Amino acid sequence: MAAGWLKALDAPMNRGRVKITGLIDTNTSAAEALRDAFALSDAEISDNLATFLDAHDVDLVFDVAIPAARRAIVETALGHGCDVLTEKPMAASLEDARAINAATERAGRIHAVVQNRRFNAGVRRIRAMVESGALGQITGLHCDFFIGAHFGGFRDEMEHVLLLDMAIHTFDAARFMLGADPLAVYCLETNPAGSWYAHDAAANAIFEFSDDIVATYRGSWCAEGANTSWESAWRIIGTKGTLLWDGEDGLSANVVAGDEGFFRPLAAVDVPPVPDEAQTHGHASMIAHFLDAVEARTAPETVGTDNIRSLEMVFAAIESARTRQRVLIARQEH
């Protein structure tokens, strides 16, 4: 992912806004290879973030480490007066996420999470469609994610790999699209026969949201033969009609256009265009949004105090799968 971030920093909207002064990795050979691949000849290599920050005047830390390392990295960066943009998920536990938010408040700095799926044309258009009221009152949101992903590396041994490492994207996008709060969840987590993952790589979840919205998620990272988009396939139902999105270019909506017949007649309606094209370039847009917030000293859209709500959905789903019980997602002050 570090390579992906560096590519995003070289996008026109970000080029020249950040100077990379160091690449920190416990495996310095990996850092050296990254430096060479991106011609970052001025970037120093280190295997210790605290030591590097002690010796250099740094404004930002981009945390692209594995989830287990998240809290230590963010707290170290905040303790050195840096703003931080971190990979998803926000943390490997809710305890760590809350500690990160507390440390951010104490430091008076900005910490945000890369939820690059929010910066997708389809997601932005669906949010605009929901806000327009064209579908009426939203009653249901349903999404499918089925991909046979052979990563190798840490994900193959990671617990709750689908929910924690991937479903966080879908849950966060659902929250954003609906503009509603998650209230409760029932989830079943499994590791299907033939899975190449050590732990559960599939999940089915039912979420209750505010405004009487029900959302369902069906997902697997070991489903071969008919991959969905990485963005999932979506169905959003309102009192007036339904919107479908295949996660790529297929985005359509129909509303009821008459009051007679067993099946009421339907009429296609236009999905609003992207409100701001600059917000549709994934990681590049996410990073630009973060840099804008840092410069203006305002809260980014994916600030940790908000993004923890998406993480709460993940851990509530994990708890539900563990206990085979419906789990409440209590709103807390973070």
Automatic annotation (TrEMBL):
Q: Which Gene3D superfamilies match?
A: Dihydrodipicolinate Reductase, domain 2, NAD(P)-binding Rossmann-like Domain
Task: Tell me which domain of life the UniProt entry assigns to the organism this sequence originates from.
Answer: Bacteria
Gene Ontology MF terms: nucleotide binding
Which positions fall inside the Gfo/Idh/MocA-like oxidoreductase N-terminal domain? 16-113
Q: Name one Pfam family in it.
A: GFO_IDH_MocA_C3
Q: Which organism is it from?
A: Martelella endophytica
Q: What is this protein called?
A: Oxidoreductase
Start and end residues of each GFO/IDH/MocA-like oxidoreductase domain: 123-243
